[in-house]
Amino acid sequence: MPVNLPFTKDSFKDIQYRFTRHIRDPDNAPAPEDIEERRMAIYRDLLYRNVESFLANSFPVLRKVLKDDEWHSLMREYFRNHKARTPLFPRMPQEFLQYLQDEKETAGSMYPFLLELAHYEWVELALSLDTREIRQDGINPEGDLLSGVPVLNELSWSLAYEYPVHRIGPDFLPEAKPAQPVCLLVYRDRQDKVRFIELNPLAARLVDCLKENERGNTGREILTEIAAEIAHPDPEAVIGGGASVLEDMREKQIVLGTE
Prior knowledge:
Structural class: mainly alpha
């Protein structure tokens, strides 16, 4: 015997929309009728706290930098306004970063470095969750980095920021950007630890060349090209300095060896 529901499919959908609108924006969207306020309060608090605590754990430095009222105001705006494109919790930090980049027009008014700091923390998280393994096949870990083709750890991101995001915390809140961009390399090692190093412009260019080395140039060839780019009067000095940088990167598992 069919059961006669007290509402139609469309009316139930409407109830769902009113329910979620109220959860996201309780100050401006009334709750559905005939739902006890005590229960609505439980839902409101539970859903907001789940999102807020997850993002606080995903962006720990950002959370420490912002005062409680600033943080919760930002979380409420995100919770109310952002239309997420994925239901997966591990991708929520990327959704939040997208919100700061594309929707939160006044993000820079809180702190000028806020967006860059959030991006830096997201990169650390993204690398920690990356399911790829560090490549080992076909690589000689002890190979000569000048005569061979250096292999860059694929789990590494070369980044340039206007602010020194790796130093920002409650005790260091820069108001002005440095004269030069801050170049960082964030990477994951074989122990699955996410680490970073600060790069000078020459080392940053070297990393970019290693990443783009589709022709299979040797380390010496790459460094010779860099010396030509900067019109250095002593190319061998660039090659010698670059060789030291490559060896240091091998020790840190940024460069895996040669092929």
